[in-house]
Specification:
three-stranded antiparallel sheet; 14 helices
Length: 617
């Protein structure tokens, strides 16, 4: 039986992650990196595609635990089972690794005596390869091709092989603890030294608590903000600072549909909002690492700038399908890689330049080559901003003149003007970028605005709307009290609204994205609506919407990409970084920590007002 997406909780070690269901089963785990092939892929198939369940012997397949929660300030998950014979706690986590990735599961008796069972089905290559499993003293080792996994318990418990799985059964009484450790390593290398699971738990708790204590946000909704920041940290690939969009691939935007994509990569579109949330909450190390990743990704020929990259900056992310997996809730195909990497999305040039602007305004130490990269990006954008593109939503239909792409071209020119006005010693022609800024602004207001309906449209010449237009006041393109902004906010809410939340764009009729089917309300866009309501003076409506969005979170505070208000189900890849960035930024705006703009001004003017930066990158 397919568990709801919101029934999962995240564990991870800052290099990869897994999803633990309410029934005690880890149904998704990629080793050794976020983008590696999964060794547990039940999430996208069935139990024969790999999973690891620990639960009471009497718990039926799919039966959920009684309650669960993260230990405060950490990514350590505790699940409690209350049975007729006693209560037991299962603690799941992945310690930050020294050499190899470990998954640790500690079963602890709370009261009475409970008989527990563990069923481990390892299936490498996204559930396609059954490994050869053998016993080595008290341990088990599973090997197939490049992958090797060691499995052990402390203290040892009775374990046997059955139906291509490794099974254990054991009793736990009050105060007794049994730990299981699963360790991956390349099969051609020796097994690394085993970790002590109990020491690893104490160290993991200390590591996460120390990190969480750095948060300087003290406003309303602090618990929700902290949990979202922990989730963003968990989606960060520590060696490079890259933040993946989600830990999964192919969780559907519509149950049974084909809108299933791989999100285990880093998108440039997320950069400005992510950087802003990290800086505003005190996580300067993470902000510096993200900026460094961004500069490495953007380096090179501006014509080759991609919309996304691998977690280490890889450029090749070829898309393929896995026919042996039936898909979550029969939502096929299951895809790995992402063909959108080859699309032209002109908005990413503005995102990169705006991100570096935000870093300057926050006082991050300069990177001497950053300004040269920005000038190269601007040169390219000046020559190409009038081209149609696929837009930020990565449509697989024809290229169009998307309004958001043009607005972000304006952002790129505007931030260059601000930098040069503040520091005239920087190389660059301020009049040239002013002229570009003015030309883009006029173009958008003339061709992208519908004066009859009083709203900006999705693309030039269309009647369709796009929730990305809600970002116009944040960028400073127009001030929040401009009638065109207010009209756009009202139109988006009315025409793209779904039970108070908003979709990205309409999918009925001839879909602009070239795909069949529908999708849910997009959670990041719904947070943008709350921001826009606040900026246009509708404070109560903004706060009510934000609290409605908080109620969408699952029991451990996680959000997917989308939500279906009619069924109450989360949809899309999970957990979604963009949704959690939206939560943090909206909380900051409602708390008065920011006006929501990223241009360094407070009135949304286009007169080249400057920020407080002291360098250019």
């Amino acid at each position: 039986m397919t568990q709801p997406i919101e029934d999962y909780a995240l564990i991870g070690d800052l290099m990869t992650s897994g999803l633990v269901g309410r029934d005690g089963s880890i149904d998704w785990l990629c080793l050794p990196r976020f983008d590696s092939a999964a060794c547990f892929a039940k999430l996208l198939g069935d139990e024969e595609n790999g999973h690891w369940r620990i639960a009471p012997v009497d718990a039926e397949d799919g039966e959920p635990c009684t309650r669960r929660a993260y230990v405060d300030g950490t990514l350590v998950l505790e699940s409690y089972w209350v049975t007729d014979t006693g209560t037991v706690k299962v603690t799941d986590f992945m310690p930050q690794r020294d050499v190899a990735p470990d998954v640790v599961r500690i079963v602890e008796g709370v009261s009475g005596t409970v008989r527990m069972h563990s069923t481990l089905r390892l299936r490498f290559d996204y559930g396609n390869v059954v490994p050869w499993v053998r016993r080595v003293e008290e341990d088990r080792v599973a090997i197939a091709g490049p992958d090797a996994v060691w499995f052990r318990s402390d203290p040892p418990v009775r374990t046997w092989g059955e139906a291509n799985s490794t099974r254990s059964q054991f009793p736990v009484s009050a105060g007794r603890r049994v730990a299981f450790v699963l360790t991956w390593h390349p099969s051609h290398e020796p097994c690394p030294d085993p970790c002590d699971p109990f020491d690893a738990l104490e160290q993991s708790l200390a590591d996460w608590r120390e990190w969480s204590s750095q948060c300087r946000y003290e406003g309303p909704y602090k618990e929700a903000v902290n949990r979202s920041l922990i989730t963003l940290k968990a989606l960060t690939y520590a060696p490079t600072g890259g933040i993946v969009a989600a830990s999964t691939t192919s969780l559907p935007e519509e149950l049974g549909g084909v809108r299933n994509w791989d999100y285990r990569y880093c998108w440039l579109r997320d950069s400005t909002l992510t950087l802003g949330s990290l800086l505003a909450t005190g996580y300067l190390d993470e902000a510096r690492a993200w900026r460094a990743w961004l500069l490495r990704a953007a380096a090179g020929d501006p014509a080759d700038l991609q919309i996304m990259y691998g977690i280490a900056g890889e450029r090749r992310i070829p898309e393929s399908e896995l026919p042996w997996l039936g898909g979550y809730a029969s939502s096929a195909p299951v895809r790995v890689g992402n063909a959108a990497v080859d699309q032209l999305q002109l908005d990413v040039y503005g995102e990169v330049i705006d991100s570096l602007h935000v870093a300057r305004a926050a006082g991050l130490p300069s990177e001497h080559h950053a300004w040269r990269i920005q000038l190269a990006l601007l040169d390219f954008l000046e020559r190409n901003w009038q081209r149609p593109d696929e837009g930020l939503w990565e449509v697989r239909g024809p290229r169009r003149h998307f309004v958001h792409s043009k607005v972000m071209a304006w952002v790129a020119a505007d931030r260059a003007v601000q930098a040069l006005e503040h520091d005239p010693s920087l190389p660059g022609d301020v009049e040239r970028w002013r002229a570009m800024r003015d030309a883009v602004h006029l173009d958008v207001c003339t061709k992208g605005y519908d004066p009859v309906r009083g709203t900006f449209t999705q693309y030039y010449g269309s009647t369709e709307l796009d929730a990305a237009a809600l970002l116009i006041p944040r960028t400073g393109f127009l001030p929040p009290d401009d009638p065109r902004v207010v009209g756009t906010v009202d139109a988006v809410r009315a025409e793209l609204g779904r039970s108070g939340l908003v979709r990205r764009y309409t999918t009925d009729g001839p879909a602009v994205d070239g795909l069949p089917g529908d999708e849910g309300a997009f959670l990041a866009c719904s947070f943008w609506l709350a921001d826009a309501l606040h900026l246009t003076g509708r404070e109560k409506e903004a706060r009510d919407l934000f609290e409605r969005l908080l109620a969408v979170r699952n029991d451990v505070g996680l959000l997917a990409e989308e939500y279906d208000p009619h069924t109450g189900r989360q949809l899309g890849n999970f957990p979604q970084a963009f949704s959690h960035v939206g939560l943090v930024n909206t909380a900051l705006i409602l708390a008065g920590g920011t006006d929501g703009s990223t241009d360094g001004s407070t009135d949304g003017s286009t007169d080249g007002s400057t920020d407080a930066s002291t360098d250019a990158g």
